[in-house]
Amino acid sequence: MNTAAFGTDSDSLIHLVIVGSGWAGYTLSAELDYSKYKVTVISPDPITTYTPLLASALCGLFGFKVAEEPVRRRSRPVSLYQAVVDSVDFGSKTVHCTSKINSFEPERIEVSYDQIVLCQGCKGNDFGIPGVGEHSFAVRNTKDASALRNKISDILEKANLPTTTPERRRELLHFAIVGGGPTGVELAAELFDTMHQDIAKMFPHLEEYFNIAIYDVASNILSNFEEDLSTYALESFRRRGVKVHTSTHITEVRDGSMTTKEKGEIKFGILIWATGNANVPLTEKLNCRKSKEGLVRLLTDDQLRLHYTNGRIIRDAFAIGDAADIESLSLPTTAEVAVQKAKWLAKNLSANGEGTPFKFHEKRMVAYLGASAGVWQNDKVKLRGRLAWLSWRSTSLSWTHDWRKKILILVNWTLNYFYGKEIARI
Amino acid sequence: MNTAAFGTDSDSLIHLVIVGSGWAGYTLSAELDYSKYKVTVISPDPITTYTPLLASALCGLFGFKVAEEPVRRRSRPVSLYQAVVDSVDFGSKTVHCTSKINSFEPERIEVSYDQIVLCQGCKGNDFGIPGVGEHSFAVRNTKDASALRNKISDILEKANLPTTTPERRRELLHFAIVGGGPTGVELAAELFDTMHQDIAKMFPHLEEYFNIAIYDVASNILSNFEEDLSTYALESFRRRGVKVHTSTHITEVRDGSMTTKEKGEIKFGILIWATGNANVPLTEKLNCRKSKEGLVRLLTDDQLRLHYTNGRIIRDAFAIGDAADIESLSLPTTAEVAVQKAKWLAKNLSANGEGTPFKFHEKRMVAYLGASAGVWQNDKVKLRGRLAWLSWRSTSLSWTHDWRKKILILVNWTLNYFYGKEIARI
């Protein structure tokens, strides 16, 4: 079977299969030495999403293009199949997958490898609550964000009709965000700013009905940050008018409404699900050592190698990203961890277990609270307010590798800063 | 019924209803004197598409946002209902319409007016050929273009699978464009450049299968241009590798193939329908004077007023855009005509029939042939090659009113010009 797309002397190259195209898979594919490796990425999505720019892209001039990075690049002879991996046979070194391309029938494909890196990531966790999949929006990639933007536009048009009653307007313009982590907080902040600073100029008669609210089972938001920063975030939101409903348990979701244990039925126009992670089927199915509690993850050693359940090392198989964790060094499911592991692996893959063990370097944790406020923290410093917001901006810029995108984003931010976001609309 | 959204002294204002948000409706809403008028736009689309930028937006860094102009602006107190007009009662001055908002049930709405301007435009003409609506893509607005881009991406991924045969690749990568007017020619040129200059870098093993082809019933392309320019365009395309099939009659379209009188069955991956105009139902239904041959259009006098079929003037009712024509001065269905009529009407609406008659000023006719070639013509000058391409660029820039968009487009063009379109992908 032909799995090579580039190069002529491909026989002398090691064929590396990367499963997944998120932060981990994308970074690995970008950092590898292509004079040694022939790379095939297998992923249902040929585009990597820069999630820190996603909430901003929802509202800006550029649309989603600035938050997207195609895995295939001119400068990089990487091959990609748009498919979902069903299983991996570590013995015969074969990947079994099924193509997943819109408007075409799925096809079974087999790909053999010399080395494999699993970074299939996670999916959103609905915590077994019925109706979440059908009646809520996710914000994990630009397709999600695009669907969300269209829905917001539809909601505004519906609320704007002369036949829509004030009560119905209030229901429609209640945007409920479930999850008080950085994603939910950032989305609430950007949405609140865009609605009140920009959309309200075009629908002034609707502004009184706007209601952006965060719901979380925990007693606080941003619970991964230090307590004073998390309290600052909560107060900053409340002062501004973003409603925060902590200690709230959702038991069922329907079209346009949800049931909570504490407050009974709550109607909404849009429900955005921005909570934690759950496993994709491949992770459940793989026959290897996994963690036992919480989110079940693939357990690697400090060389990021996979092991069979009996402890034996699986030959030429590695795992990074949200679906993987190190047995002796458990780390959270963040982009920072995924990127650092991917960079380490790009350097140490050829050492095949004989490299210096992977070490994590704590860097930063940022959340945008809207209207030039924010919180920012690393292992040495923590910031709040305008300074944190500036740090957030510079961090966001550093995510994209492309200096031309940086120029365009900077030009746009500058124009917006001085003249307002005239063009912005959902 | 409340149709006012802005202003406090709205009783002293004339309530103007604009039907449609294309070039005509958008320009009129942008040029009106809002100290005299309260404006309600009724249109199924709250966004105006800058069609000259659409083909470029398909392939560039910005996505479609630069080709979009929302009707509602901060600076303009315009009200808009996302609805389709079913009928107009000129006697009681009432518009009957049905809301058209995705994921919400349609609702009947009535809006009364003091003055009305009909600019509902046209839809694509399938010439009664069965299957066109279901199995082809249009390129009339950014939603169309977005669907087309997703399809191209799917086609590339399908062709790229190791299980896809060379013969199937050839079928899939045949992009058939029906219509040799400026829209079809421009789209073919941009698609050809993007496929061969950018996409080919990421799918080098697929380039040999690329086949961009234009089909037209006429014996030439760009038949509205002078003959030597139209011949230049044809030769320029053929030399470069865009296939041009003139004098070809399509009799049926199916999923993935079409039947032609001259060449029998032709398979394709994508069929793009870029031909002439047909009437929307409202135009058919309106009880007023219309033209008798070809595309049936609403006939106005040189004050752009509508008349009953018995010749009597319809009080306070005007028509502009593609669906309208002047009895004594027939003009083509172009953006230039629509914009000039809209500007004239914005100035002369209050004169209500007593203004200086509308006159058309011939300006320019441009088509982009890709790779820095083009043809450009006005009543005094005609250009071809690189100079025409530069004129095309400056014309495209002049379409957008927003100077910040101009800056961003210029920065992007400059970066692309010097460094290539690394980011470009379908």
Automatic annotation (TrEMBL), chains A, B:
InterPro entries: FAD/NAD-bd_sf, FAD/NAD-binding_dom, NDH-2. It holds the Pfam family Pyr_redox_2. GO terms for molecular function: NADH dehydrogenase activity. The keyword Flavoprotein applies. One of its GO terms (cellular component) is mitochondrion. Residues 15-342 form the FAD/NAD(P)-binding domain. Keywords: FAD, Flavoprotein, NAD, Oxidoreductase. Belongs to the NADH dehydrogenase family. This is FAD/NAD(P)-binding domain-containing protein. It comes from Kalmanozyma brasiliensis (strain GHG001).
